[in-house]
Design goal:
There is one protein chain. With about 375 residues, this protein is α+β, with helices and mostly antiparallel strands. The chain contains eleven helices and 14 strands. A hairpin with a 4-residue loop joins strand 9 and strand 10. The relative contact order is 0.11.
């Protein structure tokens, strides 16, 4: 069976430029994004969005007007083209300090000296950078574009890297994982990862944002800017930890992972007004993506299953009823009386659903796990 051999990751490093180098980097961001806006205006006016057509019409005007190197003009046009691939219903605009892409012609790494040679409007600059040992190991397999971004008053480079993934492990079972809000993740072994700390943090941040927005003073706006992104960073860190624990557990016990395919759930669910903020801040997609790439790096197969009725189905008799889940936390079958934690029951149903799937993988990232003879289907 063919199995992908490369995992694409992103390595992040923090630049440490001198004051004049910092000014050169910021000027480069402004000039390239101004060129993007000019190219976008031309493309919108002529209703042509192919990279070849924009290049033919705007390459020389952009190069002469904004003083950019040839390759930076090419990258600016590519940025405009990519933006219109996402949406052509309105003219696309770019912020002055938005991220810009470099390739090997205008950026080169010197890992031994922890420096990077990068093109700027003030000429080529050699700038030192700092990163963790893990990021440095990733940079050894750097390939493709690198984005220069200005985040929180600092300059960062985000570089695409290719990491070889191992052959899939020989699995002996499936670990079902139920995703939720109260418990971020619960596996079919009964281990739950509570979301109480994260949910309390989100409620506290919402209250504080509401107060500061109502106040509207300059100091309130400064406070809002200082706290922007703090909640998202905390949620990502929690998801990193949970995904790492689940993948390590599956690898250690030689099991594949079965997840719910929750794509489009926000549009399918009709939530009451007090629940909408909680639903739309639920970072299930981020957790799934982190789990997928960690699983690929560990050689653990991952399967996606239909989430319908996983929280209402009895794993003992197969009865499906809304009354099987009288509360958010409990499950009690109205037919056979089986009771237990609702999320653990749902995770077990996800495990069984993955086991009983037909021989066609729902995820293009991983092969389908064949049924293990010691794991039995429904009602056995």
């Amino acid at each position: 069976m063919c199995y992908p051999g490369i995992v694409k990751l992103t390595a992040r490093v923090k630049l440490q430029p001198l004051p004049e180098q910092r000014r050169a980097l910021l000027s480069t961001l402004r000039q390239v994004n101004a060129a993007c806006n000019a190219a976008s205006a031309w493309a919108w006016q002529h209703r042509t969005f192919r990279q070849f057509d924009i290049h033919q019409g705007m390459y020389y005007p952009l190069k002469a007007r904004f003083g950019l190197a040839a390759q930076m003009v090419v990258r600016a046009i590519a940025k405009v083209t990519d933006a219109y691939k996402l949406d052509r219903t309105a003219r696309r605009t770019f912020t002055p300090l938005g991220a810009i892409a470099y390739d090997e012609r205008v950026l080169s790494w010197k890992l031994g000296g922890s420096t990077v040679s990068i093109w700027t409007v003030a000429g080529r600059q050699t700038i030192p950078f700092v990163c963790s040992d893990y990021q440095r190991r990733l940079l050894a397999s750097q390939q493709g574009e690198t984005d220069l971004a200005y985040v929180g008053g600092e300059c960062y480079l985000f570089s695409a890297v290719n990491v070889e993934e191992p052959e899939p492990i020989e699995v002996e079972g499936i670990l079902g994982v139920d995703l939720g809000v109260v418990n971020i993740a619960t596996d079919s072994d009964g281990e739950a990862h509570s979301g109480s700390h994260l949910n309390n943090l989100r409620r506290r941040h919402r209250r504080l944002r509401r107060k500061l927005q109502q106040k509207g003073t300059p100091s309130a706006r400064r406070r809002l800017k200082q706290r922007s992104g703090k909640e998202a960073r905390f949620a990502k860190n929690v998801n990193h930890h949970i995904s790492k624990v689940l993948v390590a557990k599956a690898e250690r016990t030689k099991r594949a992972i079965a997840l719910e395919d929750l794509q489009g759930i926000r549009s399918r669910i009709r939530a009451r007004r007090p629940q909408r903020a909680t639903l739309h801040s639920w970072a299930f997609h981020d957790l799934k993506q982190k789990m997928l790439y960690k699983a690929r790096r560990a050689g653990v197969p991952v399967m996606l299953v239909d989430p319908r009725n996983t929280s209402r189905t009895c794993p003992s008799c197969g009865s499906i009823a809304r009354g099987n889940r009288p509360t958010q936390t409990t499950f009690c079958c109205v037919s056979c009386g089986l009771a237990g934690p609702a999320d653990t029951i749902a995770a077990e149903n996800i495990r069984r659903a993955a086991l009983n799937q037909p021989n066609a993988g729902p995820s293009s990232l991983h092969p389908l796990l064949p049924a293990s003879p010691r794991l039995q289907p429904w009602g056995s």
